[in-house]
Amino acid sequence: MEPLINVNKLNLFYGSFQALKNVSMTIPEKAITAFIGPSGCGKSTLLRTLNRMNDMIPGTRIEGQLLIGGTDIYSNEVDVETLRKKVGMVFQQPNPFPKSIYDNVAYGPRLHGITNKKQLDELVETSLKKAALWEEVKDHLKRSALSISGGQQQRLCIARALAVEPDILLMDEATSALDPISTLKIEELVQELKDNYTIVMVTHNMHQAARVSNQTVFFLNGEVVEFSETEKLFSNPSDQRTEDYISGRFG
Amino acid sequence: MMTVRKEFDQGLQQLHQLVVEMGNFVETALQESIEALKKVDIERAKIVIDKDPSLNSLEEQITLIGSKLIVTQQPVAKDLRRILSAFKIASDLERMGDLSVDIAKIVLRIEGQSLIKPLIDLPRMAEIVQLMTYEAIQSFIHEDVDLAYKMAKDDDQVDALYGQITRELFTLMLENPRNIAQAQLLSIVSRVLERYGDHATNIGESVVYLVTGNRPDLNV
After folding, report:
1. How far is A250 from chain B (nearest CA, A)?
2. pTM score > 0.95 for this model?
């Protein structure tokens, strides 16, 4: 597996509070990497630095380097819109636009200049298929996205993210608002997607990390405590703090 | 550090105690079966046989509690290894109990006969495997990897005695064909004790697995 994301001595401050402390890691391509750790440990912060979502938070300051495909994404030459096209994101609460299912998926491609109806139709269909939602919605694409279930809405958000053909998919607690069956569907979907995308997920559900991911990173107080193969981290972690956290002794 | 897993820890503690209880049971059963053999004491042998079902039920309890913990607590890392090693050790101890029963049954088969030779090496062998069992259980209680390795080394003596006893009994059979029936039974006892040592060594392996996450082969 080639490393796609390289984090190098990254420090992040929200005002005077340091949320990430000297974080370095290499996230491999076409695999699922899970970030775990107690609330406030920095896992979501790091996830959001990967497509510069933190830019919108006033008082955020970053030191160190974050390379994606060899490019420092915080350098002045990088266009944030292009970066976010390459690095898609799915959030905790499904957040479809109050538009039709079709328009939700076509939104990104249209924004990036695709107007050809046939081309858009194809993109919508393949994206919905990749998100394992096509069969359920193909007969009512004009229906409002808000009329489908929460689990379907979340898969629609994944389809929307995939429609702009990203390389990386970030998932921030993407199943925590869903019922167990919808959660399993998303987990299965993520497993399929990893053949073509690099996936980084933040989860509070340790067993989800254990079930789904290839690598797991354990964060504590803004630092990376352990970055291991998932099986190793959950069966025989190297650090006592990892063991205590995954065994439910704190957090 | 606050602990938020009272029920889980209680369950693991219960498993631990049951394993220790099985260990004590097995040590006594071996001692009694060898005493019964030395004196061809039928009553003592029968007690060993009659008590064995309660050892089996201890193993069943370990299976039940361990399965329940897996289902309800979704254990990981060392918690999971605690449960898996309890299963494995319980299964070794259950077999060791059966081996003591095998010795007791041999006592019943030589009822009424006098021994073809004074038993010296067999009780010595039994003493070593008894010590091995004790040390295996101690290494489990204290999670003492060094003791587990030391105990496994004693198995070499057991294997050496096994060879020696086999040769001696073979000579006795050659000397007098009327010795053959009993010599065969005594040779089974030595084989049983040799197996017993292997199970103690297995327990040592489980202790190393519990502590380190790696399963070495101590039986070499």
Report:
1. 6
2. no
